[in-house]
Amino acid sequence: MVIPHAAASAPGTPATAPLRMARILSPQSLLTAKPLLALVLWLLLTLPGSSPLAAGQLQILGEAAMITADGTPATVSLPYYWDRSRPGQTGGARFLLRFPDLPGRQGMAALYIERAANSYEVRLNGSRLASAGSLSAPVPYAGQQPLLIPVPADLLRPENELLVTIGASASSRGGLSRVEFGAPALVEAHYQRALWFKVIGPVVIAAASVLLACLAALVWWRQRDPLFGLYAIAELGWSFGLAEYFVADDTGAPDVWLALVLAGRAVFMYATARFAILVTGLEARWLRRGMLLYLSVKLPLIALMVTAHSTHAMVLANVVVNVAMALSIVAVLIRAAVTRPERERTAIAAALGLTLLISVLDLIHVWWIGDDYWDSSVTRYVSLIFSLTMGWLLVDRYTRATHMLAALNKKLDSAVSRKEQELHALYLHSREMEREQATLQERGRIMRDIHDGLGSQLVGMLAMLRSGGPSMHTLQQQLQHALDALKLSVDALQDTGGDLATVLGNLRYRLGPRLEAAGLRVDWQVARLPALHDLTPQRVRELHYLLLEVFSNAMQHAGGSAIRVSARHDACQQALVIEIHDNGRGFTPEAAAHGRGLGNMRRRAEAIGAALDLRSSAQGTTVRLTFALAPQPPGCAD
Questions:
Q1: What are phi and psi of 178, to 5 degrees?
Q2: Could you say which DSSP state residue 524 is in?
Q3: What is the gyration radius of the CA atoms in the chain, in angstroms?
Q4: Is a pLDDT exceeding 50 seen at residue 18?
Q5: What angle do CA 550, 553, 559 make, to 5 degrees?
C-alpha cells in the first residue's frame, strides 16, 4: 500500500512514486499513539465532510468524460464505482476532467483524490503527476487510500485538463472518487483528515488491539481464566479485521489478506458474543447452537467472498448475517439486563446496544449517500466501545477479586492470630502441666527412694533391735549406710550439667571419711573429662547407688587395704571409663550371681546407658563402667 502523497514533477518529466506505508509506521509516528487515539475518538463523532472554505480557493470536480478500455465514451458523475457499473469485469477507464485555474492563485496548487483504484496514472495538461500499480494488471484491493498530489505552478493554465486513468480488478472496489483542486493548505487539510480516518486511525486501533491481546493472553496463560482468553481472541481478531486499511498493496497475496480480514471480523463477533454470555451467566443450549449456526454460515460465505472477490450480493449477505447475529445477542442481553439487572449485564448490554445502533445508523448513512465502498463508514471504529467495556469489566473483576482477597487475607490473619494466641495459651498450659508432672514424678521417685532405700534399712535395723541380736558395730554400719544413701539422694537432685568429674567428686566427699574409717586407703585418679549431655539427675541417682554398692562391697566383704578410683576419656574408643579396683580377697562371680547386689548393679548400669564389666580374682576385684560417646574414629586400634 502507498501513502498517496506524490511529489511534484517538472514539466514533461515523470512524477516521483508516492511515499510508502513505512513512513506512517516510523518510530516517530508510533510515539504519537496516545494523541492518535484521542483523534480517533473525535473522528467517531464526526463524519468526514467539507470544512468552511475560502471563496474561490477550492474546486470540487464531480463530473468527468469517461472512456472505457473498449472505447465507449460517457459522461459520469463522481464518485465512480467500477463494481456497480461493470460487475465481475476487469478492465480500465480514462476520466477527463476540465477545470479553470484558481482566481488570484500564487505559487503551487494541489490535487486531492480520495480513491483511485486499483491502479492509477494522473496527468495534468499532458504531464504525468503520479502513478501506482500496473494499469494492465491491477492488484486487487489496491489504491484504496487517499492521494495528495502537489501541482507545480508552471503546469497550470487558465483552462486545464486532468486525465486520470485507472485499472480496475473485478469485485475489488475499483473506481475513482471526486477530485479536489485548490490551495495546498485547504486540500492537504482534507487529505490529512481522510488519511487519519481511513489509514492511520485503523493502524492505531489495530496496534492497540494487538497490545491488549498480548496482555490478556499473558494473564490467561498465568490464570487460565476463559474471560481473558476470549478478550485476547476478540482483540486479535479485530486487529486482523482492520488490516485491509493499511496492508501494503504489493504484498503479493491479496486473497490471503482478504481471508484474514473477513475471518478476523468473524472471530471478533464470535469471541465478543461468547465473552458477553460468559460474563452475564446466560449460558443456554440454544445460544450455543445459534453461535455455531453463525460460524457454519459465516465460514463458507468467507470462502466464497475470497474466491469470487466479494460481489455486491455477497457483501449484502455478509452484512445480514452479522446484523442477525448481533441483534440476537443484544436482544438476549437487554432482556437479561431488564429482568435481572446487574452491573456487568447492564454494561455489556449497553455497549453492544450502542455498537449495534452505531452500525445500523452507519448502514443507513452509507446506503443513503450511495457509498458503495463504505469509505465514510465509522463501523471500523465501533470495536472501541466493546473493547473498552470488556477491558473495564476485566479490570473491575480483577479489582473486586483483589479487594476480596485482601479482605480474606485480613480475616485469615485475624483467625491465625487468634489461633496463635490459643496455641500459645495451650503451650503454656502444657508446659505448666509438664512441670507439675515432673514435680509429681520427682516426688514419687524420692518417696520410692526413701521407701525402698532408707525406709527398708530403718525397718531392718528396727527388726534387729527388737530381736536383741545385733552388735553396736553392726547397727552403726547400717545407720551409716542409710545416711550415705540419703545424702547421695539429695546430691542427685542437683544439676551437674553433665560433668561426671563433679558427680565423682561429690561421691568422694560423701564416702571418703567412711572409706578411711573402714581402713581403706583411697587412690583417686580422675582426669579432666568431657561432658555427658544426657547425665540427668535421674541417671546421677542411679550412678550414685551403683557406686555406693561397689564401695559398700569393698568395705564390708573385700577385706582389702586400698581402693583405687580412676576416670578417664578413651579417645580411640570415644568413651568415658570409670574403674574401681580393690586389693581384697575377691569373690567368685558365679556364686555372687544368686544375690541381689550384682543384679541391681547391672540394672542400674543399663538404666544410665553404661556397659558394666566386673572381674574378680585373689588379687582383688575390678568394676568398670564404660559410657559410649561417639563411633570410633579411623586410625584407632581396638
A1: -65, 155
A2: E
A3: 54
A4: no
A5: 130
- Pairing, β 620-628 against β 575-582: antiparallel
Give the model confidence (pLDDT) of 569-590 as tens digits: 877 778 888 888 888 887 776 6
0.85 exceeded by pTM: no
> How many whole angstroms from its chain centre is CA 124?
62
What is the distance between the alpha carbons of residues 226 and 283, in angstroms, rounded to a whole number? 14
Give the mean model confidence (pLDDT) for residues 414-426: 90
Contact criterion met (CB below 8 Å) for 530 and 570 = no
Ramachandran area for residue 586 (φ above 0: left; ψ -120 to 50: alpha; else beta): left
Q: Match 509516528 to its residue by C-alpha cell.
A: 29
**In angstroms, what CA-CA distances link 297 with 140, 319, 351, 399?**
25, 12, 25, 39
Interatomic CA distance for residues 340 and 187, integer angstroms: 54
Task: Of 275, 165, 190, give the one whose Cα is nearest residue 225.
Answer: 275
Given the DSSP bridges, would you call strands 521-526 and 562-570 parallel, antiparallel or unpaired? parallel
**Could you tell me the CA-to-CA distances from 159 to 56, 58, 102, 121, 156 in Å, in that order?**
15, 15, 10, 20, 8
Nearest 5°: CA angle at 517, between 516 and 519? Answer: 65
For 382, 385, 417, 440, the CA distances from 275, given in Å and listed in that order, are 17, 14, 41, 72
**How far apart (Å, rounded) are the C-alpha atoms in residues 432 and 577?**
38
Q: Which residues pair with 564 in a beta bridge?
A: 523, 581
Q: Which letter does DSSP use for residue 91 in this model? A: E
**Under DSSP, is residue 34 helix (H, G, I), strand (E, B) or coil?**
helix
Question: What is the share, in percent, of the chain residues with pLDDT greater than 70?
Answer: 78
- The x, y and z cell numbers of residue 230, run together, are 476470549
Give whole-number Cα distances, 287 to 275, 281, 283, 356, 370, in Å: 13, 12, 7, 18, 35
Angstrom distance (rounded) from CA 463 to CA 457: 10
**Cross-strand bridge partners of residue 340:** none
Number of other residues whose CB lies within 10 A of the CB of residue 419: 10
CB-based contact 195:2 (threshold 8 Å) = no
Domains and CATH numbers, the chain: 2-46+58-198 (2.60.120.260), 471-628 (3.30.565.10)
Amino acid occupying residue 90: T
Number of helices (H), then strands (E), belonging to the chain: the values are 17, 20
